[in-house]
Amino acid sequence: MIKKECLFCRKEYLIKIWKRNTSKYCSWNCKINSQKGRISWSKGLTKETEPRIKKISESLKKYYKENLNPKCGFKKGHKVHPGKKLSEEHKRNISIGINSSQKFKDSVKSKERSLKLSKALKGRKFSDEWLKKVN
Length: 135
Ligand SMILES: [Zn+2]
Fold this sequence. Notes:
The protein has three domains: about 1-40, no CATH class; about 40-70; about 75-135, no CATH class. The protein has helices at about 30-35, 45-70, 85-95, 100-120, 125-135, and strands spanning about 1-5, 10-15. The protein is mainly alpha-helical. Strands 1-2 form a two-stranded antiparallel ribbon. Strand 1 (about 1-5) and strand 2 (about 10-15) form a beta hairpin.
């Protein structure tokens, strides 16, 4: 038995002396992967790509933590909406009521707006509770 380096994974493996000139890979896996045109991983590639992917996902997490949550993270029963103008309008709609047709239209408009909002923020539960109050 002699040592040989696999041409695909660069691992040292043992091979019988009479096979030393024909054998190139440590396993069938390496042989097949090599013949595929090196689509699959190799040691050098994963070491380079994994930290990169990790870094991207970490920076994304950091971004959402710093930028998205403070604005969009509603607490249950909390009467906070982005934009003072919007919340003032909502208060007006609630206090005046929806007896006249114009007020009803306004209410429908704000309902649509809040539905869009809830989809964007994924704050469905909160929005549903809030819609009950508006109606
Ligand atoms: Zn190998």
